[in-house]
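Throughout our pipeline, every protein is held as a single compact record rather than as scattered files. Such a record has a labelled line for the sequence and another for the backbone structure tokens. This encoding replaces a full spatial description with a residue-level series of whole-number codes. For reference, a complete record is included directly beneath this paragraph.
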Amino acid sequence: EWEFAARGGLDAAEFAWGDELAPEGRMMANYWQGEFPWQNLLEDGFEGTSPVGSFPANAYGLYD
């Protein structure tokens, strides 16, 4: 199942990469930052979608 694979073995964590939204200030996935849909702060560096491999793989080697 997708959620099992995406979580990479971190079943009890809040996010697929752990319990912190942005560990050490680093974005771990491409998602909207700002007031949707009027203001995109681009904190993750992408206005739209991001290329595969832009964020770290999980423990199973899968990318966001």
Residues 2-7 form the longest helix (6 residues). DSSP finds one helix and no strands in the chain.
